[in-house]
Specification:
The complex is a heterotrimer of chains A (364), B (82) and C (328).
Chain A lengths: L2 H5 L4 H14 L4 E5 L2 H9 L2 H4 L4 E5 L10 H11 L4 E5 L14 H6 L4 E3 L5 H8 L4 E6 L6 H13 L5 E5 L4 H9 L8 E5 H7 L6 H6 L2 E5 L3 H16 L5 E3 L11 H10 E8 L3 E10 L8 H5 L14 H5 L23 H4 L4 H8 L3
Parallel strand pairs in A: 1-2, 1-7, 3-4, 3-5, 5-6, 7-8, 8-9
Antiparallel strand pairs in A: 10-11
Helix pairs in contact in A: 2-12, 3-17, 8-13
Chain B lengths: L4 E9 L2 E6 L5 E5 L12 E5 L2 E5 L2 H14 L11
Antiparallel strand pairs in B: 1-2, 1-4, 2-3, 4-5
Chain C lengths: L13 H15 L2 H5 L12 E8 L5 E2 L2 E2 H15 L2 E13 L4 H18 L2 E10 L7 E11 L9 E4 L5 H11 L3 E2 L10 H10 L5 E3 L5 H13 L2 E5 L7 H10 L13 E4 L4 H9 L8 E7 L6 E4 L5 E3 L13
Classes of the chains: A alpha/beta (364), B alpha+beta (82), C alpha+beta (328).
Amino acid sequence: MSFELLEKFRDPDLCRRILDKMESELDRELRFMEVCGTHTVAIFQSGLRSLLPDRIVHLSGPGCPVCVTHESEVNAFLDLAGRDNVILATFGDLMRVPGDKGRNLKKAVADGARVKVVYSPFDTLKLAKENPGDLVVFIGVGFETTAPTIAATMKMAREQGIDNLRILCFHKTVPTALDALLSDEAINIDGFILPGHVSAIIGVKPYDFIAEDYAKSAVVTGFEPLDILQSLNQMIEWRNRGEAHVANNYTRIVGEHGNPKATEIMYEVFAPCDALWRGLGLIPGSGLEIRPEWEQFDAKKQFGIEIKEGPALKGCKCGDILKGVKQPDQCPLFGKACTPANPVGPCMVSTEGSCAAYYKYKLD
Amino acid sequence: MCLAVPAEVLSLDADMAVCRVDQGQTTVKASLMLLPVPPEVGEFLIIHAGFALRVLDREEAEESLRALNEAAGCPLGTGTEV
Amino acid sequence: MSDKVLLDYGSGGRASQRLISDLFLKYLGNDELDRLNDAAVLDLSGRIAMSTDSFTVDPIFFPGGDIGSLAVHGTVNDVAMMGAVPRYITCGYIIEEGLPMADLERIVQSMGEAAKHAGVKVVTGDTKVVPKGACDKIFINTTGIGEVIADPAPSGDAVLVSGTIGDHGLTVLGTREGLDFEAKVQSDSAALNHLLVKLVRELPEVHVLRDPTRGGLATTLNEITKSSNVCCELTETAIPVRPEVKGGCSILGLDPLYLANEGKFICILPGEYADKALEIMHADPLGQDACRIGTMTDANPGKVVLVTQLGGKRLLGMLEGEQLPRIC
């Protein structure tokens, strides 16, 4: 293995040839959805979006955990931000996510809140040790790629006898969300590009239902341009043969059974539960909560936090965008009432949500 | 939620590895807690939020590139060399 | 003098006098400053370029520089970017009480060296000491003036950059956040005026000189295209980025095109002079990695477009605010 070998997955010449082949085999429109903020960025940032034939329609799904963090979850952590003796630890992605009344973590810091951006959840262990008089509360967002890292951190905290760390668990899981999306009749998607790194943890089997129950194709895909093109190419071929398959194209990292050790650690600490998704509402069994044996770390219990559905975001079409029914520029709020500076719905909230990506990268 | 980087293992120390990212000399520390089997020096890991998630498989990478070349109508032995 | 900066040192009495003579005059002294008048009286002719900036960078010491050298380079460069020869700068300090005297001395010494190297004189200054918590360690304001020798105009063909991109931004972010990665990066903070003046004097026409500081290359180019209503088309593979900066950025999920640079500049000039400009830059230690990165065009006016490694195109827009490490 070498960096040179990995570089080959970006070869412009090979990309060009696969694109030409795809164009010649495409007999009608192909609407594909990628379900991972990182795929959204990869497609735009690499310039691949501008090279895809017009009849290949790129839609971005609810795969950005920051975007789908529910308004009441955001308000919950914003409420904690101003508290005495609380230090919030978070990934940088959450700093500008808006809560009610125009609040966000950046503004909370300006008002005196103690918020530390961390690169890894295990940075919270040091933070907790250095601030014994305070509670360090880590905002846990992320899918199955990230949840095991928080679970591992909690295990380390227990081993090291750290008693002032709390986790605000807002983790969500991907396959259940995909099922909910697909069961909506309004959905207008031909195939899915599946998240490569979530799959590195959970494997390929959890997605079988996409072909079995819904007769659509889905491919576990890496993040280089050639990874994405290969998956699209396969989807076109299968469709031309009248078939639907679930397959793995990211075999250099994803094994059929994923990473059982990581999954084991994740479910040792967390259990599935119902969860609220911004823009999509309640999806049963799509979240993770901290098990009773680990409740010493549970920030929701510590602070009596309850997550409830609130009023819908007026005029916001994120629900339709996440289902592939509309494109960002078809939402009446896009670029006017809803911009990266003042985001309304989930698709604009994270810097890598579909509307935000459109706004930031798309060339007309 | 998948920003993860490939990195080469330079040294191992209990549950942590020091890894090199990209061709420069930038190194990052990663926890190995989530790996079923400890990696060897020289292997490549995929690292997310300070944790190694998997070891990269060279053979699979080469196989993927072969498949890509075939798909592009470029038979083995020509085009992008593996 | 005490080993910590105390409130007394800013109050104008004997303690202040000692600070001025033992520290500031020692490292920054020259004919005009030594006079210690309420105002400096200077000889300048023709059109004058003037710029001011306040520096609040945290951490105050970082690989490749410190808040002092940054404060000199930043203002000297801003004046030079207008096609002017920087001559004089002022220096105002706001110091948090309790700052170690050794740190202050180190910063002032660094400023003295930076000023000497840039060929500018610190001619007047001010010091205030504020109670603990009223500022973060030390803030510095510098104002610079210089004589204009060339007139910039917003149009032009070739887009050149004087060297590698993202070094300062990554260094400061990495050092400040205490991130557990070791990258052999350091700030590129440097005074560019000598090289800039040379370019302006030796090239028949230079249209824009700008240093891509806060917000990085992408932000600065956006400012230029918006104000001149042209488009800037960049070639991704031509933009020089050190492997260490690329590596650090990939771990943190940052884009080097939006990271600050403190010792680089963008030069936009008619295509036929591009080669000569590059020759001049390559001959200078601060321009070794200079290269052409793009062209000004008419398509998509007001925008910056990146032609990617893959051969596709995307918008390189303005950021909302500063970049933060991400995992998404």
